[in-house]
Structure formats: C-alpha cells, structure tokens
C-alpha cells in the first residue's frame, strides 16, 4: 500500500520555476535536496559529487581494510622482503 508519509519530493533546480505543492491523500510530502535509491545518490542539481564522494569513501575503507588484514597475517620475512629468511 502507498504511504504518503514516507515520500518526499525533489525539485530539479534548473531555473526559478514555481514549485508545486501537490498532496497525496491530503499529505504534502517534504521537499528533498537529494535522495538515495538503489544505492545511487541523486542531487537536485543532477551533479554526481555526493555519489562520487560516497563511492570513493567506501572503496578507500575497503582498501584500508585489505591492507590492514594483509599486514596482520603476513610473516615478517614477507613484509621486509628478505628471501633468505624463509
């Protein structure tokens, strides 16, 4: 069932058009500057800055976690590159 209280409206800001105040079953949805749907952040300017920041942050965390994991499980000889210590 459709729940208008869980909805918001995002107006695309291309010019100074008047914003309508439509209602759904008597409920006027809140205005939103950006929304996240299926993991994609869309901003009302249609610029991808926030999506790019979120993706870079997520991947940096994954890389850092991989580096830390590799540092923890590696032998000292592997880390310092001494082949004669094997």
Write up what this structure looks like.
- Strand 3 and strand 4 form a beta hairpin.
- It contains two helices and four strands; from the N terminus they run ββββαα.
- The strands form two sheets. It has a two-stranded parallel sheet.
- The mean pLDDT is about 80.
- About 35% of the residues lie in helices and about 15% in strands.
Task: Present the secondary structure layout.
Layout: E1 8-9, E2 30-31, E3 34-37, E4 40-43, H1 49-73, H2 76-80
Parallel strand pairs: 1-2
Antiparallel strand pairs: 3-4
Q: How many helices?
A: 2
Shape: elongated
Q: Distance between the terminal alpha carbons, to the nearest Å?
A: 65 Å
Number of strands: 4
Strand order of the largest sheet: 1-2
- Percentage beta strand: 5-15%
Q: What is the helical fraction, as a range of percent?
A: 25-40%
Taking Cα atoms only, what radius of gyration do you get, to the nearest Å?
Answer: 24 Å
Sheet with most strands = 2 strands, parallel
The arrangement of helices and strands along the chain is: EEEEHH
Structural class: alpha+beta
Low-confidence stretches: none
Total count of domains:
2
Mean pLDDT comes to 81
In short:
With 86 residues, this protein is of the alpha+beta class. The protein has helices at residues 49-73, 76-80; strands at 8-9, 30-31, 34-37, 40-43. It folds into two domains: 1-47, no CATH class; 48-86.
